[in-house]
């Protein structure tokens, strides 16, 4: 199958997680030095006739991708990645297209690569990796883009930059650590990768063929250091160079053999300080290579000539040239020039004799991370008077390609050589982003990071409307707008709290500095009269909006050390019998605390404290929307359960199975009703450790009513919902990224409908399903309970039904292998007993088979009892025997189980 035949639309490809394997017709094995046909030429010369004309790769042009982006596509997923705010400054940035009416660059961002059209202010996001992208490269003609990651399921994906379609995927290329560096040959036919294994492996791939596995490979000794940069010789693709901070390795390959040499270079070689290596390049013919160092030096390598056998990869250091005082961070080649970037943000050009001919030092940039030149050459017919003069005696006009510079502070600039014009393309957060908040009435999203930068973006036009840099307090941990959008509360790592104007970001009052630990949560009351914060010192602080000489200002009300473990969540609500606000906090200590907002100044009091969990640890909470007659507080815990508590009595009214996507829910938020949407149809948004998801309300435990996908592989720190309920914004913390996810509720409802109606989704959760042994046992237990309830020895006619008394629930649960604690049994009975009380005023005294199945599915452990939990129980309850092992006495264990139950005993021991 040809490459043209194998490609499909980008929507189809991304719908399958962007991991299709599209391959070309097997090519005849040829020596690498004879491969002169580019991949683009192969596509254009595809011999498979009419079918190739239907391939989107074959028909794509450099303008295809962003021309099609102007036409909105059909979203088939509940959540679709719409925009990426942020950049991974550790990866290079490449210039893809640069002409009079378009400027397109490529950069990495968390687990995706972004093709950004600065001219149109548009993005095309390359999605396919489930782990952060560790390296990327582009072909010389900018047609092909390769991305790789270092996750547990490491992938290398090659994309067509014209259409945005993945055309090849290399699975398990480096299964023990992923890929740390890679490069394409000049003709784009071969790809070289270096793994991040303990013993690094270098592999060369013919990615255009159907051959499985690399063409050749070699293992490197750990003593060479972590090789993190690699490059092909553009004049001879059989020659390769790689380097770590301490060692340069030169390779030569032919067919299935890859040889390498490791030339030695120390400070004693030339009696000069060498410094650590940054980048290596080939230049001035096939024999010479150069390596830049952190000491401002340039190492010149040349081939060792032997009369017996010429080995081009057998090189030695012949010269150490001191170019400058500042460390060189980037070394690259454009045309016949060597180009360096350094720690002072300067870019310098050298000719073949290593004579400086021009430099750019007036841009005030941070240390340079990468330099990428456009593929378009300056036109020979163009007037060169606009170009700067070089520093030679002739003072010629220095006509060079335009180029893109990326720096270590997450800034990308474009340099137009004619006129030496600088234009900032991207300027993002260069430290962890933990705080994100959405304006309650306008299409604005605020995001802030540990570098003290706070930005407000219009997420419809994708423009930054204002920003502020905090000089003294930098580590911003959380943010929240008040419900009216007048104020923006900002919490810092040092305990400071700022209240800013919601639009101008100016201070509304002097910063509060009552807390000594990091501010973890911040919340406003619904009437915007109260502001509350929770800090890592386990303390809740409340501020009140007061009038002072006719001007409203925020004043301190009080603090209370209300928890003895980490505070998980902090929310405001409203009393049922009035419009007065109420404040609740939830701790890892399993305690739900309510505060008295009518307390006197500096005397914040508590109204109630309730222990809401027995063994699980609560993670978050929210006010359940008014879709039922009874008002609830919704919580989620670390055992994948969601619970509804009566907001007045704090009684657990319902326990439900939550989303089970690898990790428990970390935070939840009720999705606002969109304009024109059905107010009775409500939805819940949530994040887990690394995923973002949606859940259809009301909750019932149906697993098909939930959907989630990976948003930040390294972990999600926070999220926020737009005021129109059409977008979710997630902050990735250490990946320095905020993603915008577009919501498609119709797709979520369609997926739930495909899961079946009534009990069908719950049957699928039972082992064996509707026809399985567990279900048949459950039916038998129901009949046994009816027999026992009517009397085993009775001679009267049996009354067979599908219902059993509530008192039989514990026995059936245990018969099914689920042994709940007394507290869990009480929650089950209350859940059934009061299920119709609000509607009818009567208690329910029995339960039918359908409701029992739901009760069983929702209450039993989501994944059963693991071996680790069993070992931990023995560690807590057991004692050491003569062999030093933790054991339990059989008699004592039986007594504990019969008298108190294992869970109650376990908790008392803990």
Automatic annotation (TrEMBL):
Residues in coiled coil: none
Annotated Gene Ontology cellular component terms: cilium
Main location: other
Pfam families, sorted: WD40 (PF00400)
Annotated stretches, region: Disordered: 1-59
Localization terms from the record: Cell projection, Cilium
Name used for this protein in its record: Cilia- and flagella-associated protein 251
Listed Basic and acidic residues bias regions: 8-20
Keywords: Cell projection, Repeat, WD repeat
InterPro entries for the chain: EF-hand-dom_pair, Quinoprotein_ADH-like_sf, WD40/YVTN_repeat-like_dom_sf, WD40_repeat_dom_sf, WD40_rpt, WD_repeat_EMAP
Organism: Lepisosteus oculatus (Spotted gar)
